[in-house]
Amino acid sequence: MANLQFIKSETVTSGSSNFSVTNIFSAEYDVYYISLEAGQSGNAATDINARLLDSSSAEISNSNYDYATLRHTIGGSSTAEGRDTSQNKFPSFIGLASRTQANASNGGSVYIYNPFSSSSFTFVNGNSIDTLGAKGDRYIGVLRETTSCTGIKFIPNNGSATLKTFRVDVYGVK
Q1: How many Cβ atoms are within 10 Å of 129's Cβ, its own excluded?
Q2: Is beta strand 166-173 parallel, antiparallel or unpaired with respect to 31-38?
Q3: Which pairs count as long-range contacts for 53-59, CB under 8 Å and 24+ apart, including other chains?
Q4: How many CB atoms lie within 10 A of CB 12?
Q5: Cβ neighbour number for residue 2 with a 10 Å cutoff
Q6: Rounded to 5 degrees, what angle do the CA atoms 93, 96, 97 make?
Q7: pTM to 2 decimal places
Q8: What is the CA 166 to chain-centroid distance, rounded?
Q9: Which sign does the torsion angle of CA 34, 11, 21, 48 carry?
Q10: Burial of 38 (C-beta count, 10 Å sphere; 0-12/13-18/19+)
Q11: Where are the beta strands (DSSP E) in the chain?
Q12: In CATH, what number is assigned to the domain containing residue 167?
């Protein structure tokens, strides 16, 4: 059983065009667990993209992100696969979505491996649930560069959307 060590919690409570959580990855842990709650979006429903942040909190936007996702309908038989290489972000990060309805809430969890290491790639795997769309997602990804990362930035996929409520809890895994 993993031993989780609390690192940080951050929450957005007003309209924001993006949301960064900084100074969360360090040499103390190789593996991190992040719990996410994407609540209400401001003016448009949107998937949530993510980029890792380097040691100066700058976005890593090189086209070195690869990912694959499997989306399945809850209680149904439909599934959809998505995958791509050489992206400049993790698109639709773990399938997380934000909705315009009041009290909307979609949750997810992700493990991030080796983000602080400057000698290995950073890997992610996680899952999410879209309660309004009755869908669940499984997600894997890799940042194919050896940049030391210290944070993560969440960006609405819909450029006109804002994040009204969004919560991130970060833990180190011992």
Answers
A1: 18
A2: antiparallel
A3: 53/20, 53/22, 53/149, 53/150, 53/151, 53/152, 53/153, 54/147, 54/148, 54/149, 54/150, 55/148, 55/149, 55/150, 57/20, 57/22, 57/150, 57/151, 59/153
A4: 18
A5: 11
A6: 125
A7: 0.91
A8: 11
A9: positive
A10: buried
A11: 4-12, 19-21, 31-38, 46-54, 65-73, 79-87, 97-98, 106-113, 122-130, 135-143, 149-156, 166-173
A12: 2.60.120
Tens digit of each residue's pLDDT, the chain (174 residues):
579 999 999 998 777 888 899 999 999 999 999 999 887 677 777 788 999 999 999 999 999 999 999 988 877 778 889 999 999 999 988 777 767 666 666 889 999 999 999 999 999 999 988 776 677 889 999 999 999 999 999 988 888 788 877 899 999 999
| Domain count across the chain | 1
Q: Which residue has the tokens 């819909």?
A: 158
Q: Which two tokens stand for residue 37?
A: 């709650």
**DSSP-based three-state secondary structure for 127:** strand
Q: Which residue bears the tokens 């602080």? A: 116
pLDDT score of 168 = 95
By residue range, what is the domain housing residue 57?
4-173
